[in-house]
Design a protein that fits this description.
single chain; alpha/beta; DHBP synthase; ten-stranded mixed β-sheet; 29% helix; 21% strand; globular
Length: 197
């Protein structure tokens, strides 16, 4: 497994790995995440296999701006969206209605998709690099699920990723996870109800 820095060159290499159907590990607001092109079914299924996670649970997409997530989700009414947009960028994941063409390997057994505009500098720069260099990924959205086996705590460093997942990811983007003690808060977009604190 290769490791690259969070320099422009390293992020370009990571974006090219994503565009080629690769699985990468990278720092987020609280933990290291596993990511791939959301529109590459083989890569998404590989992430689920690495983690031992069922496809029915659905996944999170992150981006550096909300426009990159719009191909996947339908905005809610203006009052609800004002609250959601006010929480971004930041460690707040919201369930929004999935567009009819959003792949089932992303939504799982749900009619919603979990999305977040990240404020982690490396994760946001990685999303922008994917938009710039990533071929058909284009939009700059990236799958983001914690880098761990389903029954173990999420990895918070490149070393912890290697210890837990071995050579399963194709590439690790170096950097520090944010200072949050746990993964992002997940809320239902329609009601605002907290589903994961």
């Amino acid at each position: 497994m290769r490791s690259v820095g969070s320099t422009p060159f390293g992020l370009r290499e990571a974006a090219r790995a994503v565009a080629a159907g690769g699985v990468i590990a990278y720092p987020t607001e609280a933990v290291f995440g596993l990511g791939c092109d959301p529109l590459h079914p083989g890569a998404v299924l590989r992430i689920l296999d690495i983690k031992g996670r069922g496809i029915d649970k659905g996944l999170i997409l992150i981006a550096a701006d909300f426009a990159a997530l719009l191909p996947y989700v339908e905005p809610l009414d203006s009052a609800r969206m004002a609250e959601i947009r006010a929480s971004w960028p930041g460690p707040n994941t919201w369930l929004l209605p999935a567009r009819p063409h959003t792949p089932g390997w992303l939504t799982g057994a749900h009619d919603t998709l979990a999305v977040r505009v990240t404020d982690h500098p490396v994760a946001a720069a990685l999303c922008r690099a994917c938009a710039r260099y990533g071929g058909h990924i284009g939009s700059g959205a990236l799958v983001s699920t914690s880098a761990n086996l389903s029954d173990l705590p999420p990895a918070r460093s490149p070393l912890a990723v290697r210890r837990q997942l071995g050579d399963a990811p194709d590439l690790i983007v170096a950097g520090r996870a944010g200072s949050r003690g746990r993964p992002s808060t997940i809320r239902d977009g329609r009601s605002g109800r907290v589903l994961r604190g």
